[in-house]
């Protein structure tokens, strides 16, 4: 029987994080990013378990004590020693599918967004977690280069992505659009692929991951970033993307319900002034809640209200991500959801 790629709102066992190492690019910001990730863990653990890959046993012991002090139940926390190059679990973590009613985790090749950064340990992280007995379901390796942030799904056969990323020659240069679609349909059980040709964020290293721009909220609803400042360099491309979204149709021929997300004021690196990729589209859906990145901006409250409209019945939880964007990602980029039935039972 074919695989079916699960949407993010499918029931989850846990959210996977990769803890920053003091020897990584996070070194100058280590205390800040750790504080942000602590807030994420505390928030997620109110709803479900958190799996954290940690660089060493000392960090594992420290975090076990730290989260106990913060009131996180031990049963909601799994700490596994598995050193990594960076923290972006969305892109080096596994993709959850279901086959014959059983969860399967697919382990794709991660090359540091087309060879931009060192990624050897990140690329083997899922396999090392599996070898440590972390997962209750099979983990299957794939030879395709694919990052979780590059795709989104409605769970009903539609895949959403961007040409700038998936067709970039730095990913799978031997595959054209038709060949790549064939591979994605076979692996993920999707029946159609919607390609966006416009939209980008300055400061983004991913070649326009869709999770920074447009997200499924349910099979009929898309939330997207909308730039309302004609003087902003993003304005034209994002307006063109909005036009593309208005032209998209669901499998039944109906248009999508579109929810625009506000545009925060430009966030810039305090050291050299380059623009950072602040986006409200990088939210995380978990069991009964949605975690939303905020940036200390007047638009934060508007984003929370818009996503509250998109996710009725779920708690909307803001997470300050000003530290995260300093390394050119945001909240969703730090996480990978693990579907129900994928995490091994532990004490």
UniProtKB/TrEMBL annotation:
GO molecular function terms attached to this record: agmatine deiminase activity; protein-arginine deiminase activity
Nucleus keyword on record: no
Domain of life, source organism: Bacteria
Keyword Hydrolase on entry: yes
Gene3D superfamilies per the UniProt record, alphabetical: L-arginine/glycine Amidinotransferase, Chain A
GO biological process: putrescine biosynthetic process
SUPFAM superfamilies the record matches: Pentein
TM region(s), chain numbering: none
Keywords: Hydrolase
PANTHER family: AGMATINE DEIMINASE-RELATED
Protein name as it appears in the record: Agmatine deiminase
Species: Halomonas daqiaonensis
Lineage: Bacteria, Pseudomonadati, Pseudomonadota, Gammaproteobacteria, Oceanospirillales
